[in-house]
């Protein structure tokens, strides 16, 4: 099935990457477990499958599916065993000593740590900037690579991807967008001008909280070849069973997001009504009052499943978790289970002590609203 958008997102999610119909065969073939493949003769580089560190039929199907969701048949997608591996596979092959890398101050921690640690040690100049369109554009002058996460996590600030892409292109650099919070159905960075989009597929893409996965997608074959070569040499490959599970999970991406996003807006609205009473702040790009709403409304097709709120103290945040029956205290987001955590416990985000990141699952919205309301009332 072509990835072109002549079908709706739900249809594309169900059919993405499936092989042509064949009598007596399953819709989605099972995983291929193999290290070597039959490889006769000397024309080994003309064969698609020779050794499983370079390719596997199960990856191929998943990568074809992700490419279709990311933009169509002219997109190349590559998979990795985690989102962090995907980030490394973009940064290391595309940067050299003396290059300038721009990264947000609140970007995904792995990106910041790689930038300020290993990449800086190799001679890459790192510019850390706020999650602000003007700040990113100003810092992009002379940069070889700009990496933005939008919406940011956990701040939920939004960068104008079109404006940043135009500036980066004008300066001769490349733009990478971490699209994990939005997903390809909530925001399409390649259509907005980005050179690369990356995802932690452990989150919404697979959606069940049981897989680690990373993906990158690009229309630039030079970038794709460099990233693929890095993966081959580093051995940062996805197992076939994980690839098959991920592909199976893609079919429900649209329906999961539809429910989760609607519930997230309902809960954000409920919580926003308590600001000034017993909550200090609520952030969700879908709220018309949110500072990020105007830009998000222009470039996003869905506002996501994650919101943040501040109950005023770390002590109250901890008590809220104890009082909630349905909200699970855990790190990560994008799962079918509603999860929350106090972000300051990690020590690397500029978050207030009480700030809670809430990732909305697929439970009934009314049940979640009652659960949160009871916990908030009990800890007022």
From TrEMBL:
One of its GO terms (molecular function) is lyase activity. Residues 1-27 are annotated as: Disordered. InterPro entries: Cys/Met-Metab_PyrdxlP-dep_enz (IPR000277), PyrdxlP-dep_Trfase (IPR015424), PyrdxlP-dep_Trfase_major (IPR015421), PyrdxlP-dep_Trfase_small (IPR015422). The keyword Lyase applies. Its EC number is 4.4.1.1. Keywords: Lyase, Pyridoxal phosphate. Its cofactor is pyridoxal 5'-phosphate. The keyword Lyase applies. NCBIfam families: PRK07582.1. Belongs to the trans-sulfuration enzymes family. PANTHER family: CYSTATHIONINE GAMMA-LYASE-RELATED, TRANS-SULFURATION ENZYME FAMILY MEMBER. This is Cystathionine gamma-lyase. The lineage of its organism: Bacteria, Bacillati, Actinomycetota, Thermoleophilia, Solirubrobacterales.
